Amino acid sequence: MDRVGRQGDDERWYLFYTGASSAEVGLVQRTGLATSQDLFSWERAGPVLVADSRWYETLDRTLWPDQAWRDPWVFRDAGDRVGTCC
Questions:
Q1: pLDDT in tens, 18-74
Q2: Separation in Å, CA 63 to CA 39, 48, 55, 58, 60
Q3: Contacts of 41 (CB under 8 A, 6+ apart)
Q4: Which residue in 23, 31, 58, 73 is deepest, having the highest Cβ count within 10 Å?
Q5: CB of 13 within 8 A of CB of 35?
Q6: Closest by alpha carbon to 17, among 37, 42, 40, 38?
């Protein structure tokens, strides 16, 4: 599943998206999740992934003008969901 897909018996659709907040003037990106039963009406679950500074470069305006944490890609591994960002 890449960004949009169906999971399990609940018949819901899952959409993973890149979002930014006005609180950081759009400079920090996060991965969000929304679900839908019909692909027309969506309910946001909010941010589900944020960059962890132990493993990923976070916002440091002396090095780069923004924090890129985008383009979620979700795949299955032995039946479980595993997510990654590129």
A1: 888 888 777 778 888 898 998 899 999 988 888 777 877 777 767 777 777 777 777
A2: 40, 26, 16, 10, 6
A3: none
A4: 31
A5: yes
A6: 42
**With 0-12 CB in 10 A as exposed, 13-18 as middle and 19+ as buried, what is 46?**
exposed
Domain count, the chain: 1
The two beta strands, 4-6 and 13-20, are antiparallel
The domain of 27 spans: 4-85
**CA pair distance 73, 57, nearest whole angstrom:** 19
Interatomic CA distance for residues 22 and 15, integer angstroms: 21
For the chain, the distance separating the N- and C-terminal CA atoms, rounded to the nearest angstrom, is 15
Q: Per the structure block, which two tokens stand in for 23?
A: 């609180």
